[in-house]
Amino acid sequence: MYVILVYDVEQKRTAKMLKLCRRYLHWIQNSVFEGEITEAKLQELIHRARRLIDPETDSLIIFTSRHERWLDKQIIGKEKSSTDNFL
Amino acid sequence: MYVILVYDVEQKRTAKMLKLCRRYLHWIQNSVFEGEITEAKLQELIHRARRLIDPETDSLIIFTSRHERWLDKQIIGKEKSSTDNFL
């Protein structure tokens, strides 16, 4: 399945969250990731993310689509991932 | 069409960007919006956003889908929009 993941976590957890998400998906902007992932891997990612976040303050939004072709992507301005992908 | 919009702009432009996007879409997280919008309205939003951003530093990613039903949305942690929608 195709996934878009966006997180909003407190500053002190951003590095861990970034690292976790990059193990599963492609980083495309600040706190935005996308990619093809299996249902099992997505559940693993969600499970790990739940252990990382504080549900009182942090949030994670995951959009899933069975096919990437059902979505078009357009980037206005700077394409982050092409230049800043080396954290 | 159904749209997910995510922006990453410099601090000094966030308030203007937030205000602009909220005129067209629903705010669901920090810098993430979604909603049904016509192609004409989306083009208007993009046009206005282009005048606001600095393309050297800021970016705007827009995912579009012809039907909202092609996407599932899952929120882990805090549901921002339900409580913080009164900026």
TrEMBL record, chains A, B:
Keywords: Antiviral defense, Endonuclease, Hydrolase, Magnesium, Metal-binding, Nuclease. The keyword Manganese does not apply. It comes from the Bacteria. Its cofactor is Mg(2+). Coiled coil: none annotated. The keyword Metal-binding applies. Its EC number is 3.1.-.-. GO terms for biological process: defense response to virus; maintenance of CRISPR repeat elements. InterPro entries: CRISPR_associated_Cas2, Virulence_VapD/CRISPR_Cas2. It is an enzyme of class 3 (hydrolase). One of its GO terms (molecular function) is metal ion binding. Mg(2+) binds at D8. Pfam families: CRISPR_Cas2. NCBIfam families: cas2. Belongs to the CRISPR-associated endoribonuclease Cas2 protein family. Homodimer, forms a heterotetramer with a Cas1 homodimer. CRISPR (clustered regularly interspaced short palindromic repeat), is an adaptive immune system that provides protection against mobile genetic elements (viruses, transposable elements and conjugative plasmids). CRISPR clusters contain sequences complementary to antecedent mobile elements and target invading nucleic acids. CRISPR clusters are transcribed and processed into CRISPR RNA (crRNA). Functions as a ssRNA-specific endoribonuclease. Involved in the integration of spacer DNA into the CRISPR cassette. This is CRISPR-associated endoribonuclease Cas2. It comes from Thermonema lapsum. The lineage of its organism: Bacteria, Pseudomonadati, Bacteroidota, Cytophagia, Cytophagales.
